[in-house]
Write a structure and sequence with these properties.
The chain is α/β, with parallel strands linked by helices. Helices cover 27% and strands 23% of the residues. It has 2 domains: 90 residues, Sandwich (Immunoglobulin-like), CATH 2.60.40; 296 residues, Alpha-Beta Barrel (TIM Barrel), CATH 3.20.20.
Length: 417
């Protein structure tokens, strides 16, 4: 028996008790869970402070909050949020917002609207809410400057997990752009934000609709184009602002859900469970949807890496929290060993043992895509989209790696000193 196969069997035995003792079906992967608040406020962190199922919070961050006037940046509130999260051992995902909904006033700096150079800056809807004119090159260029300032100031903060960009949808009744130019603006945003922050910080673009795309086939093709674009970058991907179970192969809710799963392992996938995503009727059961059903749909169907759960009470405390506790660590993820191609010796894992960083060299096994880290007890710890990842904060002992390349999966281990 090859040493690597013995290694896999050894870990499978270790995993047996912790993964297969309870009755419910295992999740196909272990996502990262974050509590979502539509405020630039970290006070609700007390709800998850001692909860190991929640890694942190997703918090709204309006453009105008950090740049009240042109070239005058104010990161005091951002710094405070990150520092509080860090003191609790939690992470923050900022939902950078440049769109206003439900008649709210614009969330972009005034200069963007008043300076003719930006051609109005935002496009207003009949109810006075607005969307940013990403089809205007001057607007995306200005955003690039803002992203650079953000990355320089707090990009390396240890509590920063990721940044997601708002949904692609605009007012379907009145759009004043060429959809191809709008797509260019969205993709420029993704690339500029990615370049402004280190690869350890994920970047996700929310995709749902692109009015002006034409027939449904063209709409889905355009959404796929942007989704595929995200795969060019490390730790980058897409998802959606709403997470509703779909039965229709051509859903009216958000077409991205028809193909998101195809990008599993190639892009960071993330979806938000928001106000209307709680308490609706599950089309499969005819009953009010449960948190467990939302979780299983997110993981098993959409293949989400991140799930953002809105702090909507009492649903959050009564349904979401106990459901995540029930499924704690209960996932097969990439540990479906029958699919693991293995001779771990084909991949260099160094230094091993390691104190600070672990490096991977895949060589003839194919191009590196991702690596999943597990404890010796089989508990999923994290997924990295870089072949160099930190281990300084881990307790001493052995760890299992499942390494994904474009040719297959490989099992290996390293020891943390």
């Amino acid at each position: 028996m090859k040493p690597a196969i013995r290694l896999v069997i050894f870990f499978l035995i270790l995993l047996g008790n912790s993964f297969y003792s309870a009755g419910q079906t295992l999740l196909t992967k272990c996502p990262h869970h974050y509590m979502l608040v539509f405020r630039t406020d970290v006070s609700s962190i007390v709800k998850i402070a001692d909860n190991p199922d929640f890694e942190g919070m997703q918090i709204k961050l309006d453009w105008k909050t950090i740049e009240p006037e042109k070239d005058r940046f104010d990161f005091a509130l951002v710094d405070s949020i990150l520092d509080v999260a860090d003191s609790y051992g939690k992470k923050i995902v900022f939902q950078f917002q440049y769109k206003a909904f439900n008649g709210a006033p614009p969330v972009v700096p005034d200069y963007l609207i008043t300076d003719p150079y930006y051609e109005g800056g935002v496009s207003f809807y009949p109810d006075s809410s607005s969307t940013l004119k990403l089809w205007i090159p001057a607007v995306t260029a200005r955003l690039d400057s803002v992203f650079s300032a953000m990355g320089s100031h707090f990009g390396d903060h240890p509590a920063l997990e990721g940044i997601n960009l708002p949904e692609s949808a605009t007012n379907s009744a009145e759009y004043d752009y060429d959809v191809n130019e709008y797509m260019k603006g969205i993709m420029a945003n993704i690339e500029n934000l990615r370049n402004a922050f280190p690869d350890s910080v994920f970047v996700v673009q929310y995709l749902n609709w692109l009015p002006g795309s034409g027939p449904r086939d063209s709409l889905i093709a355009n959404l796929r184009t942007i989704a595929e674009f995200t795969t060019q970058f490390e730790n980058t991907g897409f998802g959606g602002p709403d997470n509703k179970i779909q039965t229709d192969p051509n859903p009216t809710y958000t077409p991205v859900m028809t193909f998101q799963y195809e990008f599993d392992g190639r892009a960071v996938l993330a979806n938000a469970t928001q106000w209307n995503d709680y308490g609706y009727i599950n089309p499969y059961t005819g009953e009010i949807v449960t948190a467990e059903e939302i979780l299983r749909y997110s993981v098993d169907s959409l293949k989400d890496n991140y799930i953002f759960w809105l702090e909507r009470e009492p649903y959050f405390s009564d349904e979401v929290v106990p459901t995540l506790e029930q499924y704690r660590g209960r996932c097969t993820d990439s540990l479906s060993y029958v699919n693991v191609i293995t001779d771990a010796g084909l991949i260099d894992i160094f230094p091993n043992p390691s104190q600070d960083m672990v490096n991977l060299k895949t060589g003839d096994t194919g191009n590196f895509m991702s690596v999943k880290l597990y404890s010796a007890a089989g508990m999923y710890i994290n997924t990295y989209f870089s072949d160099r990842f930190p281990v300084a904060g881990l307790p001493r002992g052995p760890y299992l790696l499942i390494i994904q390349t474009d040719k297959g999966q490989y099992a290996g281990k390293f020891v943390k000193e």
